[in-house]
Structure formats: C-alpha cells, structure tokens
Design brief:
By secondary structure, this protein is α+β, with helices and mostly antiparallel strands. Helix content is 55%, strand content 20%. The strands form 4 sheets. A 5-stranded antiparallel sheet has the order 2-1-5-4-3, with helices on both faces. Strands 7-6-10-9-8 form a 5-stranded antiparallel sheet. The protein has a 5-stranded mixed sheet with strand order 12-14-15-17-16. A hairpin with a 5-residue loop joins strand 8 and strand 9. The longest helix has 63 residues. The protein is rod-shaped and about 215 Å long.
C-alpha cells in the first residue's frame, strides 16, 4: 500500500468518524426536538380538552338544572349529548390521527368507576396510579414514554383543578409512530448527505494526498538513483520546510557516501594487494604454515606444509589435524602449544616432535601465534613449522665435539686422580710382598682405592662414550654430585673448594643425564678457570614454589663485563686462548631442550652466578618411578 493511499485512507477515516458523530448527534437532537414538539402538542390538546370538558360540564349543569323544566326532554338530551366530554374526546381524536385515546380519570377511585369519560382500552394500571398521583401532587402535566399492548406510545397526564369540585386528570394516549417516521425521514436525509460528503471527501483526500506526497515521491526517486550507485546525484531544495530539510540532509549524506565509497575502494584495493602479497609469502615460504580455528579445524595450509607433513590441502582443510604422537617421547608429556596460546593469548615457540601423514616422526621447531579480531578475541591460530632434523644433527655433532674437547681437558685431572690411589696400592702391595703377610686394614684401604678408581673411570667413560638420547626421571642432586666427584681432584690442584647446599628432599626432573652432566661440567670448569687464585664455588640445588628445580653455580672469580655478558652464548665468541665459544651455546641448547632456562648474572670483581631452572616431575606415579630408579 502506497503512502498516498494510506494518507487518503487516514483522511477518509477521520471524515467518516466526524460524519458518524454528526449523524448520531443529529439523531438524538431530532428525536428530542420531535418528542418535545409532540409533548407540547399533547399538552395543548389535553388542555384544550380539559377546557372543553369544563365548559361542557358547566353547560350540562346549566341546562339540566336551569332549563330542564322549560325545554322538552328530547331537546335537553340532544344538547347534553352534543356538549358531553365523550363527544369532545371523539372529535379531538378524529381531528388528530396520532391521538389514540382520551380518558378522564378520577384520582379518588382506581376501580371500575375511575373513568369519568372517554375510553380505557390502552390499559396501564400499574403506571396509571403512579403517574396520576405524581401529576396531582406536582400540579403539572406529565408525559410518559411507554409500551402498551406491544405498541410504543406517549401518555400525557393533565391535572384539572376546580375550586367547586374535586380535581381529576385527563389522560391522553398518543402514538409514537409519527415521531419515529419523522426521525427516520430526517436520518435518511442526513445519511444521504453524509454519504455524499464522504464520497466527496475521499476523492478530495486522495487528490490532496497526491499533492502532499509528490515531493516525497521525487525524493524517493532520487534516493533510488543514489542507491543504484550514482552518488553524484543531488536533490533540488526548493522549500525550507521539513521536506526541504530532508532533501538537504540527503544531499549531505550523498556527499559523505561518495567520499566514504572512494576511501573504501582504495582500502579494498590495498587490502586485495596486501592479501595477494601475504598469500604469495605464505605459499612461497619454505616453512610449513597452517591456520586453524580455536577448535582445531584446519582453515588453510601452504605448499611447504604439504611437503613436510604429507597432507594435501584438499585432504586436511576443514578437518582436525592429527599430528601429535599418542605416546610419551623420551619420558616427556606431549606438548600442546594451541591450548597454551589460547590460555595466555601470547605466541609460543619451542622444538618438539610431530607425526607425518605416513606415521613417521619429524623433529620441528614450531611457533604458534594467536589471530585476533577487532574486539581483541582470538579467532584463529597460525602455526609455523620448520624441519629441524638436519639442524639437530649438526647440533649433536657440535655437542659431541665439545664433549670430546671437555674429555681431553679432563684427561690430565683424571690421570692425576688415578695416580694417587695407584701409588697407595703399589706401596701396600710392595709392603705385603716383603713381609709375605696380608694385612686386613691394608686390604680394606686397597679395595676402597680400587672402588674410587672404578668410579672415576666409569664417570669418565660415561661422559666420553656416545649414547642415545633417552629422557628419564632423575634426581639432579645426584647428577650434580657425580660431576663434583669427577672434578673434585682438579679443583684441589687449583686450590678451589666446592661448597654444596642441596635440598634434603629429592629434586626430580625429566632429563637426559649425560647432557646435564655435560652442562654442569662446562659451568664448573668455567667457574674454576675464572678463579686462578683459588676460592670457593657455591653449588645450590632446590625447589621453588612455582614447580621448578633451581640449580645455581656461584663463583668468586673475576666477573664478566656487561658488554661481554650480552654476547655470551654466541658461537665462537670466547676470551679463552684455545676456546671455541661453543660450550655455553651448546649448554643453553641442552637446557632449552629440557624446557628450562639458563641465566647468567655477573659483575666485574665480584664473581658470576649461573642459574638453571628445570620443570619438576609433578605426578605421583612419576615420582615413585624416579625413586625406584634412584634406588637401583
């Protein structure tokens, strides 16, 4: 339905309501006026009848009492009949067709004799008594609208008072039909006029509505042109009313839309170019990239991902990527970076093991970062995987090379440590050879020295012999203690003393013990070399409140300058004459492989403190397993 039709309907409905109210008001007005005129006529008729009755009664008395003896009885009866109230009532009813009945009523007798003259065919005994009494008590005419014998009539009661006789009441019954007929004629005429006016009003309102909405139609046509994309279209402002103001605002809106559309086109072009650029980078990069939603479904992968893991884009997009090993690797729990990123909303970078499509394992360095929307909510995760197989092989070679260097440096100390118990053994054996007797005390000392030689040689062989990397639950107090036993003799040669402060309770971690020993040997040898004049090296092993094992090596050496401290760990950076600079770098990589941290704090002239943190074993069954290994 158009606005024009709606507006015409509103005006027409309003006019219909007004005309309906006018008809209703006219009905009540006409009815009341006609009833009022009818009542007035009835009053006039009743009063005239009452006067005529009084005159007839006076004439009757005069003729009967005065002229009764002088006139013949026939003449007297004729005069009395002509002047009787009944004759007057009949003449009045014949003259006025609307009068139905005229009755003279004696208020003192409401029996069969209550009628003084006239007829009483329209009987209304119950209302008669009340109306007669009310008319006499108020001494005024009374009109009653009622129904008698199924017909609607008007009853008029006119009290007649005569000072010589008792008062009586004249009851005039009039039909309501003339009033109803007059009302119907008046209403029909009023209805015809109203319908004509309504038709005229509908036609006029439709024409007026068309004129009113013509400017709106023009504005709508121009807005449709704007909606089609022709933002250079402008409306002509020909008035300063609300429509003119609307046209002006639409022009302003068109200006803004044109400017914003131009900017959006530019931004869209920039976004398209940037998208193509980023897609080119993602597709051409050598690192495997895959994007997932927060539930883990793959949204996009690049060609490097297909080459590294074996899944094609059609196979994996829209599905969950099952590339986590379902078992523990080297005694460590599976690392799930996605859950960590969603929890912390920060990027995570670490080395781990993943599965290819064919089930084979691949060592990767994986970086998982969150992707946020405008509200700051994580909507997706981007994971970048790099194959670390060759890199790890190279690092393993570097570790072995560094280990061999360390072993060579330890050889002199081990030889010196073995020479002392061998001298003791040789002396006791020569003594027993001379005496040709066996001394039990000498035997116990000799066995103790042999055990010490076996321990030193075993530790040296364990360190020097290449072994497979296998993570186990170990107590790092014992691991550190073994390294201290190995380097204790060399420390004594340089006037260095180890001061040990270990936790009284087990400190269990997942580790590869030989690699940790290599780290501890590197740190202790660096501390010893930093103390050419001797001193104490403090060793601490304890647990902190956040679930980490904390190991500290604190020396009293010369310290390290701040500018050199920042470069520590870089390959081939060293201040030793025959050093390679790889020892500390390899130690850092070993600690990172154990998901720990290595921090160096130093100050010139005050020594150096190296702090290592490693995650503790938390589960009870793993704790029990570690205790069993320690017992063995």
């Amino acid at each position: 339905m158009t606005i024009k039709t709606k507006l015409a309907l509103i005006i027409s409905c309003f006019a219909l309501i007004i005309l309906s109210l006018n008809i209703v008001l006219s009905y009540f007005t006409v009815r009341d006026n006609l009833r009022r005129d009818s009542e007035a006529n009835m009053m006039l008729t009743a009063n005239q009848i009452a006067i005529a009755v009084e005159q007839s009664r006076s004439l009757y008395n005069y003729v009967k009492l005065t002229l009764g003896g002088k006139m013949s009885s026939d003449m007297t009866d004729a005069i009395l009949i002509m002047t009787s109230p009944d004759r007057i009532a009949q003449k009045s009813m014949s003259t006025n067709r609307s009068l139905l009945e005229i009755t003279g009523i004696d208020p003192n007798h409401f029996d069969e004799n209550h009628r003084l003259f006239g007829t009483y065919n329209y009987k209304n005994d119950e209302g008669l008594r009340q109306s007669v009494a009310e008319a006499i008590s108020q001494n005024r005419s009374l009109v009653v609208d009622t129904r008698i014998n199924g017909e609607r009539v008007l009853e008029c009661y006119v009290p007649i008072s005569n000072y010589r006789e008792n008062p009586y009441v004249i009851r005039v019954v009039s039909s309501y039909s003339p009033i109803a007929d007059a009302i119907n004629k008046q209403m029909i005429g009023q209805l015809i006029v109203s319908v004509s006016l309504l038709a005229l009003m509908v036609t006029g309102s439709y024409w007026m509505a068309g004129g009113l909405i013509r400017p709106i139609r023009h504005i709508l046509d121009q807005v449709n042109v704007l909606a089609s994309g022709r933002l250079d279209t402008r409306l002509k402002v020909s008035s300063f009313d609300e429509l003119g103001l609307l046209a002006h605002k639409i022009n302003i809106m068109a200006d803004n839309l044109g400017r914003y559309t131009t900017e959006l086109r530019q931004k869209s072009e920039e976004n398209r170019s940037m998208k193509e650029y980023l897609e080119s980078i993602i597709s051409q990069t050598a690192d495997a990239i895959h994007i997932t939603d927060v539930k883990g479904r793959v949204l996009q992968v690049n060609a490097a991902f297909e080459r590294l893991y074996g899944w094609s884009s059609e196979e994996i997009v829209g599905k969950y990527l099952e590339y986590l090993p379902e078992f523990e690797l080297d005694g460590r729990t599976i690392w799930r970076p996605e859950a960590e990123v969603i929890e912390t909303a920060e990027s995570v970078l670490a080395e781990t093991v993943r599965l290819r499509k064919d089930g084979s394992q691949v060592e990767v360095s994986i970086s998982v970062s969150p992707i946020f929307d405008q509200a700051g909510k994580i909507t997706a995760l981007i994971s970048i995987s790099r194959d670390m197989t060759e890199h790890n092989k190279m690092e393993d070679l570097l570790r072995r090379s560094e280990k061999l260097t360390t072993v060579g440096q330890l050889a002199a100390g081990v030889a010196h440590e073995i020479r002392n118990p061998l001298t003791t053994l040789r002396g006791f054996l020569q003594m027993q050879q001379r005496t040709r007797t066996v001394n039990v005390m000498h035997t116990d000392v000799m066995l103790a020295e042999l055990d010490r030689i076996n321990l030193i040689v075993s530790e040296f062989l364990i360190l020097a012999k290449p072994q497979a990397v296998q993570f186990q639950i170990k107590d790092v107090r014992f691991t550190m203690g073994d390294v201290v036993s190995l380097l204790d003799s060399e420390a004594h040669l340089h006037n260095i003393e180890f001061e040990v402060h270990f936790s009284p309770s087990p400190v269990l971690v997942h580790c590869e013990e030989n690699q940790l020993k290599q780290v501890f040997i590197n740190l202790l040898k660096n501390a010893m070399e930093a103390m050419p004049k001797g001193g104490k090296i403090l060793l601490q092993v304890e647990e902190d409140d956040s679930g980490f094992a904390v190991l500290r090596v604190i020396d009293e050496g010369e310290g390290i300058a701040k500018d050199r401290l920042q470069k520590l760990g870089e390959p081939f950076y060293t201040n030793k004459e025959k050093g390679t600079g790889l020892g500390l770098m390899i130690s850092q990589r070993i600690i990172e492989g154990h998901r720990g941290t290595l921090k160096i704090e130093s100050e010139l002239g005050k020594g150096t403190a190296v702090t290592i943190t490693l995650p503790l074993v938390q589960e009870e069954e793993e704790h029990n397993e570690g205790q069993a290994d320690l017992a063995n």
